[in-house]
Amino acid sequence: MTDLFDDAVRRLLEAAEHADDLDPEVLELLQHPKASLEVAVPLRMDDGSLRVFRGYRVRHNDARGPTKGGIRFHPAVTRAEVTALALWMTLKCAVVGVPFGGGKGGVAVNPKELSRLELERLSRSFVEQIADHIGAETDIPAPDVYTNAMVMGWMTDEFAKIVRRHEPGAFTGKPIELGGSVGRSDATGRGAYHCLKVLEHRLGWEADQVRVAVQGFGNGGQAVARLLAADGYRVVAVSDSQGGIYRDEGFDVPSLIHMKNESRRLQAVYCEGSVCEFVEADQITNDQLLELDEIDVLVPAALENQITADNAARISANTIVEVANGPTSPDADPILAGNGVRVVPDILANAGGVTVSYFEWVQNRNGLQWTERQVADRLADVMTLAAQDVYDLATTRDIDLRTAAYVHALGRLGAAVQAKGTHRFFSVE
Ligand code: NAD
Fold first, then answer.
1. Buried b (16+ CB within 10 A) or exposed e, 141-153
2. Distance (Å, whole) CA 369 – CA 360
3. DSSP structure class, residue 328
4. Which of 5, 159, 329, 415 could make a disulfide contact with 308, Cβ separation 3.0–4.6 Å?
5. How many helices (H) and strands (E) does the chain have?
6. Distance between CA atoms of 119 and 125, rounded to whole angstroms?
7. pTM of this structure
8. pLDDT per residue over 52-80, tens digit each?
9. Half-sphere exposure of 71 (CA within 13 A, CB side)
């Protein structure tokens, strides 16, 4: 199996060839995570037994500010995965211009096998192990796959007990009651939506002619599906870890969300208020969803390496919007490009989450509470500008969108590293 961090570095080096005047020291720094912590996370189970899970927290690079990135609870979590995700966070924060570096964390655990109390104890235990390495000025965690506001609430509470003071800025994606920001829960999907709206405007799409498939119907996937459907896009397929559903006429997305959140299962329904009835739909697998015919926009919003050299040639969508981190493997990129598939890359498409996390951190540090409108408008401004910058760069340089996003990020990272002093700066000719 390939190491996800090695893949991520390979992609970075390839993109860097297109960056102007990038000091080689910047690239050297980015290939080495600043700090990696691996911890044992003991958990007292409900039956009284003890289990120990592996946990990780990686700070990739802090040239532009404190490191920032989510915590993932998933059985497939590894050090390499967390490190790759941390590198992508460094790039992502630079793409949208928020003053953070990149970090990430995770615990190799299947949270679906834990009771609610076990999940709480696991969340608190993980914070106990990493507490010396996180904080509002150093490294700021947030939710990721199978963690959410509730988990961030437990973690914030545990951290406050350890440091013996309130420090809401040490975590983002918290419950509103504990200093969370309105608009954080759908920020990742909303950011992807803004990236698509810029494309829609530039390419003259008619919303009701655009058919969308969403793989992964969680935090990111649900929000982007809901916003697109509200604008008239036809969301014809969605899936979760158990498989997917397809309906040619499209789904009523708020009904799907209501049912999924009530029953924890994805079901083809139409709801009036809380009364839901089943609608006709085909059951499909996750693989089938990716390869559906007559799809215009494909939104991978689950995990890494879903689109690979094995299936890239069978993708019929003309646009992929990477809400997930790393859903397209590097060897799939040239195949997609050869078939004219446009890929809005993860470091741009899912940057709405970290952008509103930044807003949350700003509010926490200033004792402010912005309104939903303020958050939504500021997010729209940041995402629209970043998307326009990346799309313009791609056009003027004749490079793909992923390379353009990397070049854009490297420009900002290079400037920050250089401002602190590099060999080029100090050497006297
Ligand atoms: P989530 O836990 O809310 O949702 C994940 C969804 O994916 C669930 O519906 C799950 O059933 C589904 N899933 C899991 N395995 C799957 C599989 N093999 N095939 C299809 N579906 C599967 O997680 P999320 O926060 O929405 O994160 C999803 C992706 O978005 C991740 O790659 C994450 O890193 C990325 N992301 C999340 C945020 C955020 O703010 N939450 C920000 C940026 C990027």
1. bbbbbbbbbebbb
2. 9
3. B
4. 329
5. 15, 14
6. 10
7. 0.96
8. 999 999 999 999 999 999 999 999 999 99
9. 33
